[in-house]
Amino acid sequence: MAEPTIDAGPVALRRSPLAHLEDRMRAAAVTGARGVTLLERPFLTMVNVRVAPGSEAAGRMEKTLGARLPRECGQTTESGPHTAVWLGPDEWLVISRADGTALTAELREALGADPGSAVDVSANRTTLELRGPSARPVLEKGCPLDLHPRAFGPGKAVSTTVGPVPVLLRQIDDAPAYHLLPRSSFADHLARWLIDAMSEFRGAEVP
Question: Tens of pLDDT along 10-64?
Fold first, then answer.
């Protein structure tokens, strides 16, 4: 890694929770019919939103996002760079590729003086992407959810555990590919657990 210049700002100097495991995650990749890959998608914007559902304030925030805040457990909604994930009856996590400071300010402006909050929690979590034909079997080693497509598919997101680590688990497509959002302090443990769980798929499938 190149040495930072003296005028490098905080964005240029930041280091993701799993930067030290990048090579190990890449080396753990399995190809072929039983393929599975693991990588980090760091520095996604995450804004925690609290507001009364169906209120005028919620409507203004939805207009800002360009998407309706989901109303049921497991639901997500998407618009442009934003994905809103249901966390509770009056709580959501907005995951976005937009600038966190700007998005948080826009949501606070939309909230106005009404009860609620919009808090940038981007540093609280990181994002792991698990992808490939064996991604679901890897997760099933340590996740209590029914991940069969009849019960869980693209657009679903829930709070659960994978191995010993609490995560927000979101399926992003039917490859299948999943995003796992652990707390940053637990990311190392989760990544190592997944790397170990992936290793058996290098061999031939047992009849």
Answer: 566 789 999 999 999 999 999 999 999 999 999 999 999 999 999 999 999 999 9
Task: Classify 180 as helix, strand or coil.
Answer: strand
Instruction: Taking residues 3-12, report their average pLDDT.
Output: 50
Backbone torsion region of residue 80, taken as left when φ is above 0, otherwise alpha when ψ lies between -120 and 50, otherwise beta:
left
pLDDT at residue number 12: 65
First to last CA, the chain: 45
Rounded Cα gap, residues 44 and 127, in angstroms:
8
**Contacting residues for 87 by C-beta, under 8 A, at least 6 apart:** 48, 93, 159
Residue spans of alpha helices (H) in the chain: 10-13, 22-27, 56-65, 100-111, 135-140, 187-198
- Residue where the block lists tokens 């997760």: 139
Distance CA 65, CA 60 (A): 9
What the block records as the tokens of 18 is 């799993």
Full DSSP string of 116-147: -EEEE-GGGB--EEEESTTHHHHHHTT--S--
8 Å CB contact between 193 and 21 = no
Q: How far is CA 63 from CA 25, 34, 58, in A?
A: 39, 43, 9
